Amino acid sequence: MLQGYLPFNPQGLSGLSWHLAFNTAASFVTNTNWQSYAGEAALGYLAQSLGLTVQNFVSAATGIAVLFVLLRALAKAEHRELGNFWVDLTRIPLYLLLPLNLVVASLLLLGGVPQEWTPARTTALLEPLAVTATGDVLPAAAANPRTGNVTLHGDALAQTQIVTEQFVPTGPVASQVAIKQTGTNGGGFFGTNSSHPLENPNPFTNLVEVLSILLIPTALCFTFGLAVRQRRQGFAIFAAMALCLVIGLAAIGMAEQSATAQLAQHGAVDLGTIQQAGGNMEGKETRFGITGSSVWAAFTTATSSDSVNSMHDSFTPLGGLIAMFQMQLGEIIFGGVGCGLYNMLAFVILTVFIAGLLVGRTPEFLGKKIEPYEMKWSVVICLATPVFLLIGAGLAAGLPSAAASVSQHGPHGLSELLYAYSSAAGNNGSAFAGLQADTPFINTSLALIMLAVRFLPIVGVLAIPGSLAPKRRLAVTAGTLSTSGGLFIFLLIVTILLIGGLSFFPALALGPLAEHFSALP
Fold first, then answer.
1. Which of 29, 492, 493, 498 has the least CB density, counted as fewest CB within 10 Å?
2. Which is more confident, 104 or 282?
3. 79 SS3 class
């Protein structure tokens, strides 16, 4: 809010409104990184670096620190010491995040991502353009050199403005992009995020950035196995997450490659892969194509990263549905750094309890008895996302001022609202990009949901270790349910899909599913 009075603001940008500042602060503190603004047009270098990039490190470290409390409780028996939060919060950035991001930022610099503190500049266009009052962009040669008018749609004349220069924003980009990816933060330095040519210039930087999203969440699965001294447990969690991700990725890729009857114009347009890129290229960068865009969309919505290299609002109804559903599951398909695994472990405890009821045995996990106290908090963790998401989206859909923010009416308009609240409740932060979200109600409601869904599960994740740590470890018997085999992985995925399906199917049926079936020829 005060950036207009602070240094390192070469564009002289003014402060944000109270509701946009509140939304942005809550967003970056909670590792959501939802942005109701365009970075290069709203925030100066100091606000981006000191205000946002620091929170990218701290919020990521917080998730990992909370996870390690749970891991220590599962690894130890009859023990009450679970570590010190401030020690963990110091070690994680110092020994993990800073060294890792020095490497990633260096690779991005080699790929052409800028890192500088000089003001933005303008550069001459290779070919001047004529821009009409209606927004049409034509070559300058199309305008009458004497009157400046251009002929549109037959005899209609439109006054034009000849544009010879382009505004090129710059700044300390590489350092923020590195931690936005590795910390599953996702807040872009530029408004169009990683589809911007200076934030993600080429296939090399695209590969570095998209792999960075899954780097720490994947590694933490195996860290879990090492911590509890049972590597198979870590592999089982990884297998469940990876299987869900592969299914989601395949569904998005097929939906985007198949496109829709409207894009094909019932066969009049070739959507094959011989004459052109094929499929639905709406809202996608040609340097990444459908494959690169689909992989990124699947990775970013499976984790809590909101970085994008294409506009999800332009995806097919089924492609958008899968991206939305992955967030609605509560950032458990790898999820955010730390928080993805501890949310998944809450589902593991829930699955163990259900399996125990089926076989008539007291549920236990890693030798620790699961009792009502742990179950209650696990249910709170698992249902936090659905409850706050559906309440927020329902209020927004019923409020005329919020409903007016959508770019389209009908099922797609509902999908835009539903995606925004799914993104906030999943601490994801990506957007359909068709929603005009910078309003007092949407900014405030999204911020409150982000705070609630981030910190309420953290309370539960800290409460469960406090109960588990003092318990003695039970001996493994023939009746002990294996939590590292294929059967348990299947039960875990079924439990996740049941909770997600029962919670969100009615809303999805009114949004992307209705849009898909209405678009069928």
1. 498
2. 104
3. coil
